[in-house]
């Protein structure tokens, strides 16, 4: 008899499980969609800002290399004269860069002070600026 009672209780338990509604309410679905869309928007903005940062970092790196090339030229081939300003263009990384150099007196007669400014060819703002000293030979 005990086994029969247990089997009846089991059948009632399974029927109860089958009769319960196990779906999501409309509010739960709306909240889930809101969370999902918010997450997607945050990820999209993160990707956009990362792409912009990579572009700016690449331009900064390339303009620094243009300035380094000019410094190498100053030290080797193109020796400067006091109060001299030079400018020109250089291709680097598939882009055309404009550079400007200026030389002035320093506190010591043995040194010239130089400043190099680099920007993209048709840009209004400079993307790199460096100052330094070179021996007056």
Q: Give the name of the CATH superfamily.
A: GSPII I/J protein-like
| Rg (CA only) | 35 Å
The helix content is: 40-55%
The poorly predicted ranges are none
Strand content: 25-35%
Q: How many helix segments?
A: 2
Largest sheet geometry: 4 strands, antiparallel
Tally of separate domains? 1
Identify the CATH class. Answer: Alpha Beta
Terminal Cα separation, in Å? 115 Å
CATH architectural category:
2-Layer Sandwich
- Placed side by side, the strands forming the largest sheet appear as 1-2-3-4
Order of helix and strand elements from N to C terminus = HHEEEE
Structural class: alpha+beta
Secondary structure layout plus pairing:
Layout: H1 2-19, H2 26-76, E1 85-92, E2 95-105, E3 111-120, E4 128-135
Antiparallel strand pairs: 1-2, 2-3, 3-4
Features of the shown structure:
Pantoate--beta-alanine Ligase, Chain: A,domain 2; 2 helices; 4-stranded antiparallel β-sheet; alpha+beta
Would you mind describing this structure in some detail?
With 137 residues, the protein is an alpha+beta fold. It has a single domain (25-135), classed as 2-Layer Sandwich (Pantoate--beta-alanine Ligase, Chain: A,domain 2), CATH 3.30.1300. The chain is 50% helix and 27% strand. The protein has 2 helices and 4 strands, in the order H-H-E-E-E-E. It has helices at 2-19, 26-76; strands spanning 85-92, 95-105, 111-120, 128-135. A 4-stranded antiparallel beta sheet has the order 1-2-3-4, with helices on one face. A hairpin with a 7-residue loop joins strand 3 and strand 4.
């Amino acid at each position: 008899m005990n086994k029969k009672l247990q089997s009846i209780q089991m059948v009632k338990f399974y029927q109860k499980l089958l009769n319960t509604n196990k779906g999501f309410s409309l509010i739960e679905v709306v909240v889930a969609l809101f969370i999902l869309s918010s997450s997607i928007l945050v990820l999209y903005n993160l990707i956009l800002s990362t792409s912009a940062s990579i572009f700016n970092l690449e331009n900064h790196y390339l303009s620094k290399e243009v300035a380094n090339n000019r410094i190498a030229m100053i030290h080797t081939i193109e020796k400067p004269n006091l109060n001299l300003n030079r400018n020109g263009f250089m291709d680097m990384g598939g882009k055309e860069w404009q550079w400007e150099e200026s030389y002035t007196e320093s506190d010591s007669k043995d040194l010239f002070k130089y400043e190099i400014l680099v920007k993209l060819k048709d840009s209004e703002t400079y993307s790199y600026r460096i100052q330094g000293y070179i021996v007056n030979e």
